[in-house]
Amino acid sequence: MQGCYINLERSTERRAAMDAQLQRLGLTNVRRHAAIDAQALAPGNTAITPGERACFLSHTEALTRANPGEALLVLEDDAQLSEALPTVLRSGALAQLEAEGCDIAFLECQPVTSTQHLLALWHSLQRRLPPQGSGAPRHALSSIDFLDARTLYNWGAVAYVVTPKGLRVLPALLQEAITHGPSQPYDLTLGSFLRDGRLQGVVLSPFLATPAWGSHADSTLGSPAESAAHDVLGGALRRLFFAGPLDDLEAHVAPWRHAPLTDDTQLRLLADLMAQLFVLTARDHTPR
Fold this sequence. Notes:
By secondary structure, the chain is α/β, with parallel strands linked by helices. It is 45% helix and 15% strand. The protein contains eleven helices and eleven strands. The strands form three sheets. Strands 2-1-3-9-5-10-7 form a seven-stranded mixed β-sheet, with helices on both faces. Helix 1 links the parallel strand 1 and strand 2. The protein is globular, with a radius of gyration of 19 Å. The two termini are 36 Å apart. The model has no long low-confidence stretch (mean pLDDT 91).
């Protein structure tokens, strides 16, 4: 399998961290792909920011330059990888996906936060992680699940694998989107392709990658600012499903976990009811 990580020339600290991580995991075939810098782009009349446009073009270029005869692992330079990833990549499971018509396999994502989809991820954790109290690390997976990306995937392009079939399909779709804008950031465009059936994909669970803590703070995308609470809680949700260290997850989210995010008392009540109902549903529908 070929691989690359996308990295700006000026992001030297991220480059050093990725190189060290890949070396430690034995993923020495994953090479740096020089990202397109938004500062060097000519002005464009698009609905997305220059940083988002540069990101879109960087991913597209990485896919276009890949050898279409073998699968491609694509990483962004803030990806924290599970110790289980090399084993899964060597297992032949991803080759099986192409035989089943899969184009893309996400190693993690921001999932759709419905009860149905979060339960699917939660039950996968219970099946695949070592039992609590066993002393085994979280990356000691019994197996991996393939969940339908068409309904589960919301956004995120931190880590994914494109099959040879996908490398014959996806670059052309992306070039078409570029010709018309693009009108959405790269990951949201992937989601559109999945939902309209032009791209076939899965999400691997438990997640084999997760964004590094705090990476949103020095992002170069220039996206419209979201609240700190959204960044922290969304990142924590993704890490909760990661087959790797939680890195003091509870302490990290403590300031936000019960924060009064709204003055609307009925909205706060709705949030509390949803949380408790989810616990009841997860408890009562745990696979035997």
